[in-house]
Amino acid sequence: MSSDTAADPTALGEPAAVPRGPVTSASYSITVRLTADGDPASIGRIATAVGEAGGAVTAIDVVDSRPDGLTVDVTCSAADAAHSEEMVTALGAVPGVAVRKVSDRTFLLHLGGKLEVASKVPLKTRDDLSMAYTPGVARVCLALAEHPEDVRRLTIKGNTVAVVTDGSAVLGLGDLGPGAALPVMEGKAALFKRFADIDAWPICLDTQDVDEIVRTVELIAPGFGGINLEDIAAPRCFEIEARLRERLDVPVFHDDQHGTAIVALAALRNALRVVDKRLADVRIVVAGAGAAGTAIVHLLLAAGAGQVLVWDREGILSPDDERLSPAKADLARRTNPAGVRGELPDALAGADVFIGVSAGNVLPVEALAAMAERAVVFPMANPTPEVDPVRARQHAAVVASGRSDLPNQINNVLAFPGVFRGLLDARATEISTGMLLAAADALAAIVRDDQLNANYIIPSVFDPAVTQAVAAAVADAARAEPGATATVTDRTSFVG
């Protein structure tokens, strides 16, 4: 999950340092090349050193063997970057062992980028070239000039999405710029292909000017069947999305807003099934009033939530707070007409649900004790949650986060591939709140009653039913809304 509004941790006082989590991760996986003496016990000492440093050995491969010793590659996972360095130090201290090289497997995976362009048609003969390119392609161009509505059928437009960013809110890391945002956009495009067979391409813009971004996307839109806005900071993202939706005839979807909201609502519906509470009755606190928080609140209210408070760096958002931006003031009017004031712990007193999309470590775990019985806690800030999800289980009946190494990962990949698959299949020209609700309901319904429990409220991202169910629900909703889909003449012949 990403967060573009970094809540101020000092608003609650300086939080205590959070201890390293107990779980290692492949994202901090390293391969260390070592030389070891001929002592048969060396391999055992190497594995022991990694374990005593808190790491997990996933492979030990012999690269070279000689009478006087071995060269081995030790692959192990760590909890974070500092932990990786600790393991290397521990390995270097093993008697008879020397560290020769350390490779970060995540960086190795990114060498040369993660995408490529591949042709869908053979280009082996003169006939192939004459049809795929000149002169045959000219006939198709002329046909499309006469019938522009066929562009979706005879070009990549019908299955292509632009992943557009200005690099101003990359993950939860802040304004890193377009170059540093490119690995995330590449990854997003790879996920589109893997989970929905959609061809997506990263578009990283070297501007944060709203007019320039809107105009640039307008100019490139003819080549895409949909626009996925990504990692654009609030409140700028709201205006960009609104203007593009007004001007373009393809759907515009800001994943940090709507993808997050879909998955959060689906997870909450199932979490409330676990604790036997109703959405209309529970008190919900949302930490973070940026893109994700605003969209979550909008979708919660549209789904029938009755009581929502929003907290950000100004405290609980109140309509009489003159410091609030227009976007936050609108949130306050919609969620807090009584003008309740206070900080995050104040909002949590007696609350049934906490949803965090703000910043890491803004909430002491002890504050969760003031929540209602059978509380639901979703700390989703990335890469560091608002409160330690493991320790949160002391006070909550159901816990979910954005982390892949813990149960109940709330991950946007559960939503956006299926959403766009449905939009493209229906030839949608827009996306509505009704389509977002349909996606959330379909995602929640994948978890059957006989599967549902506190550690399984949301399906795996690798469940093939996810994309299919979400896509079908979105496509059906799009076709049911007047004007939401393009009118296409059904011609069986393209003679130009």
From TrEMBL:
UniProt keywords, alphabetically: Metal-binding, Oxidoreductase
Gene3D superfamilies recorded for this chain? Answer: Malic enzyme, N-terminal domain, NAD(P)-binding Rossmann-like Domain
Tell me one Pfam family matched here: malic
Malic enzyme N-terminal domain sequence ranges: 112-245
Malic enzyme NAD-binding domain location: 257-479
- Does the keyword section mention Metal-binding? yes
> Which InterPro entries does this one have?
Aminoacid_DH-like_N_sf, Malate_Decarboxylase, Malic_N_dom, Malic_N_dom_sf, Malic_NAD-bd, Malic_OxRdtase, NAD(P)-bd_dom_sf
- Which family is this sequence assigned to? Belongs to the malic enzymes family.
Q: What's the protein name?
A: NAD-dependent malic enzyme
